[in-house]
């Protein structure tokens, strides 16, 4: 969301500049008394920027009223995902609530593995085994997926392989 705020700030600055240019356009004509082509292009660009600003403001308003976990202005996607999976671990396995969350971006050109991956299931499986409980990593990953709170940036979660939770970001 901080990227949206930065973009919004840039758009506000551009809007101020385009308002100044719009005023100049109204008074500037070429030697034949007709509007200059460059000035018409500036007017078109101004309209596009205003539309973009409207869309961004609308998106911010929708995100702030959406249900589930809210994205903080200062958090990165990784920090947000870490927070979500920390909640999932605490909810699914309260005895391991202090386990550090392992989130990794997926380095694959294939969209089938998602955008990020939570890799805590294998470590939690090992902790369970040390305490005398046999729990498969895939089973743990399924429980983490089920306990993960909803988020406006997540389109879907999938359990893959031996126990990875693949995170697909909403576009």
Question: What would you say this structure looks like, in words?
Answer:
This protein has 171 residues and is an alpha+beta fold. It has helices at 2-27, 37-65, 77-92, 121-130, 137-147, and strands spanning 103-105, 116-118, 154-160, 164-169. A 4-stranded antiparallel β-sheet has the order 1-2-4-3, with helices on one face. Helix 1 (2-27) runs antiparallel to helix 2, helix 3 (77-92) crosses helix 5 (137-147) and helix 4 crosses helix 5 (137-147). The radius of gyration is 24 Å and the shape is elongated. The protein starts with a helix and ends with a strand. 19% of the residues are buried.
Give structural attributes.
single chain, 171 residues, elongated, 4-stranded antiparallel sheet, alpha+beta
The gist of it:
The chain is α+β, with helices and mostly antiparallel strands and 171 residues long. It has helices at residues 2-27, 37-65, 77-92, 121-130, 137-147, and strands at residues 103-105, 116-118, 154-160, 164-169.
Mean pLDDT score: 83
Strand content: 5-15%
Order of helices and strands: HHHEEHHEE
Low-pLDDT ranges: none
Oligomer: single chain
* Shape field: elongated
**How many E strands?**
4
Helix content: 40-55%
Secondary structure category: alpha+beta
Question: How do the helices and strands line up, and which of them pair or pack?
Answer:
Elements: H1 2-27, H2 37-65, H3 77-92, E1 103-105, E2 116-118, H4 121-130, H5 137-147, E3 154-160, E4 164-169
Antiparallel strand pairs: 1-2, 2-4, 3-4
Helix pairs in contact: 1-2, 3-5, 4-5
């Amino acid at each position: 969301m901080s990227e949206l705020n930065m973009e919004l700030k840039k758009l506000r600055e551009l809007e101020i500049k385009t308002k100044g240019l719009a005023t100049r356009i109204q008074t500037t004509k070429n030697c034949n008394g007709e509007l200059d082509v460059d000035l018409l292009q500036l007017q078109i660009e101004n309209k596009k920027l205003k539309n973009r600003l409207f869309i961004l403001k609308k998106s911010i308003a929708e995100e702030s009223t959406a249900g589930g976990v809210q994205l903080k202005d200062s958090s990165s996607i990784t920090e947000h995902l870490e927070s979500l999976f920390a909640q999932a671990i605490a909810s699914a396995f309260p005895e391991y609530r202090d386990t550090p969350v392992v989130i990794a971006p997926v380095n694959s050109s294939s969209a089938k593995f998602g955008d990020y991956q939570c890799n805590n299931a294998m470590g939690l499986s090992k902790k369970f085994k040390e305490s005398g409980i046999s729990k498969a990593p895939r089973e743990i990953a399924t429980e983490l997926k089920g306990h993960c709170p909803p988020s406006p940036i997540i389109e879907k979660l999938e359990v893959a392989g031996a126990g990875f939770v693949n995170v697909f970001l909403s576009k």
